[in-house]
Every structure is written in C-alpha cells, then in structure tokens.
Amino acid sequence: MKGYLGFFMLVAALTAYMWRDTFDPESVRGARVLITGASSGIGEQMAYHYAKFGAQIVITARRVNALKTVVQKCEKLGAQKVMYVPGDMSDPADPERVFKYAVENLGGLDFLVLNHVGNMNIELWNGDADHVRSLMQVNFVSFVQMAAAAFPVLETSGGSIIVVSSLAGKLASPFVAPYTSTKFAMNGFFGALQNELAIKKSNVSVSILILGLIDTEAAMNKIKGFNTMTAYPASEAALSIIKAGATRQKEAYYPWFHYFTCLINNIFPFGKDILLSSLSAENKE
Ligand code: NAP
C-alpha cells in the first residue's frame, strides 16, 4: 500500500513539475504573430492577449468587418503593430497568399497560430462525402499549406507553429465525424512533423493544443439542446495556447485534466462510452 502511495505521489510531483508555468510575457513582446480564424472565438481572444503582451500581429478570417473590430481593440490593448488580411481557407490559393502578406508586412514571422475551423453541425453522419472533403481543405489541408510556406521563414527566426486541435482529435467522437477526422489528421501530421524536426535537430517548434469544450458563441450555439460537458472560458483557453507556444511545449491540454481523459481512454478504451453517453441522441432535449 505504502509503495502505491509513494508511486502516485511521485507521479503527481513529476506532473506538477512538468506543468509548472514557465511563461515569460517578455518572450512575446515584439514577436511577429500570424493568427488564423481571429475574427471571433478563441482566435479573437488570442489576438487580445498577444496585443496586451505588445506583439506585432496579423489576423485573418473571412469577415472583414469583424476583423476590423478586432484590429481596433488590439490597438487599444497595446499591440505594437496590428493588421488584418481577409482570406478564405476553402480556397487553395489563400493560405499562401495570407502567409505572404503577413511575412511581408511584419518583416518575418515568429509564431504561426493555426486556429481557424470550418462550419459543421452536430449530427449523425449523413453520408455527405463532399462535406468531409471540403472540411478537410479548411481544417487540415490549409494548415499544411501554411506550415509548408512557413518553414523556411521560421527556420530563420527560430520560430514556432501553434496548432489548435481538439479532444475530438484524440477520441473518435460521434455526431461530429467529419470534424473529428480533420482533427485526427491534424494531430497525425503535426505529430509526425514534431518527430521529423527532432531528427533534423531543427530550431522550429510545433505545439499541438488539445482543447475540451470552450464557451465560444459558435460552440455554444452548436451544442444547444445537448446535455454535455462544462464549457471553459475562451479567454483562458487562448492564454493557455499562447503560453504553450511560447514555452515550446509539444502537446498541451486545456483544461489540463483532459490529459488524463486521453490517458484513461488509452488504458481503458471502454471507459469512453461513459464520457460519450453525455452526447447521446437520447439526451437531446
Ligand atoms: P469559431 O468561434 O467558430 O471561430 C472560427 C474562426 O475561423 C472564425 O474566425 C472564422 O471567421 C474562421 N473561419 C471559418 N471558416 C473559415 C474559412 N473558410 N476561411 C478562413 N477562416 C475561417 O471557433 P472557435 O470555437 O473559436 O474554435 C477555434 C479553434 O479551437 C478551432 O480550431 C476549433 O476546432 C478549436 N476547438 C474549439 C473548441 C470549442 O469548444 N470552441 C473545442 C475544441 C477545439 P470567419 O467566419 O470570419 O471566416
């Protein structure tokens, strides 16, 4: 018994050490940052945090008016520089065009924050393969295109790619099959890249963020009528993403306990049925 207690205390101490907050806000002051999907939700909140830290920011999404509003707020919050460039990531030409705009206007890049997400409904898969294909372009292929354009630039600055993923990229989630598949693709691709960068001893880091349910307007509207998990604040999620990127963590979880959700799911695969039952069709009000 004493042996088990000692083991668990050791694991707890190691975990606390691993997750201690080593973030220095000075590390992002003046940093050149491109944030995708920043007209609303978590991307918008990231823009505000980077602005408060005095970063130089380019934001992108499709809605120009919403981008302009975010730019104005970032200026007030203390961004050294802030610009927007409209872009539609369903258009295969736009990831590179948007990236070029950011690099030319910032004079290089330190952080590429890949955060945008295409539209999807919460429903049983309806057999629409075209939707899966188009969502793959927006949620995954455009991330890869931007990363491809970014590597030579980030190698010069010793910069970072921050990839906003989801618990749905770790647990095959019913009702969001197209979305979950794009997030699995994302975790697989950028996880493989992390390993290749380690082999190459590259100075570029890739951070993958695994998020649970976050209280953005879009997410809250989608889950209306479903009995589901607690939603956590978008502003806190945004800050945890920035910290993970700045401290070059390979994988980080927000809220933190989803690390254990994934761990437990791997050890006891049947346990996920309990978690997912909260999303079951019977629970729809
Ligand atoms: P959101 O509020 O819906 O914001 C999505 C952003 O992506 C918006 O700025 C939107 O702007 C942009 N966007 C959508 N389609 C686009 C397109 N075709 N081209 C360019 N930009 C496009 O989403 P969120 O809840 O903040 O989620 C942000 C990230 O967190 C996503 O990667 C999501 O998967 C992840 N995440 C969220 C949750 C959650 O519960 N909220 C949970 C886990 C993971 P425009 O409409 O102006 O283009």
Give the C-alpha Rg.
19 Å
Order of helices and strands: HEHEHEHEHEHEHHEHH
Helix content: 40-55%
- Put simply, the count of helices is 10
Mean pLDDT: 93
Terminal Cα span: 46 Å
Q: What is the overall shape?
A: globular
User: Strand-residue fraction?
Assistant: 5-15%
Question: Keyphrases for this structure?
Answer:
7-stranded parallel sheet, alpha/beta, binds NADP nicotinamide-adenine-dinucleotide phosphate, 285 residues, globular
Description of the molecule:
This is Hydroxysteroid (11-beta) dehydrogenase 1-like b. Keywords: Oxidoreductase, Signal. It comes from Cyprinus carpio carpio. Pfam families: adh_short. Residues 1-16 form the signal peptide. The chain has 285 residues and is of the alpha/beta class. The chain has ten helices and seven strands. It has a seven-stranded parallel beta sheet with strand order 3-2-1-4-5-6-7, with helices on both faces. Helix 5 links the parallel strand 4 and strand 5 (160-166). Helix 2 packs across helix 8. It starts with a helix and ends in an 8-residue tail after the last helix. The model has no long low-confidence stretch (mean pLDDT 93). The site of NADP nicotinamide-adenine-dinucleotide phosphate (NAP) has 28 residues, from helix 2, strand 5 and helix 7.
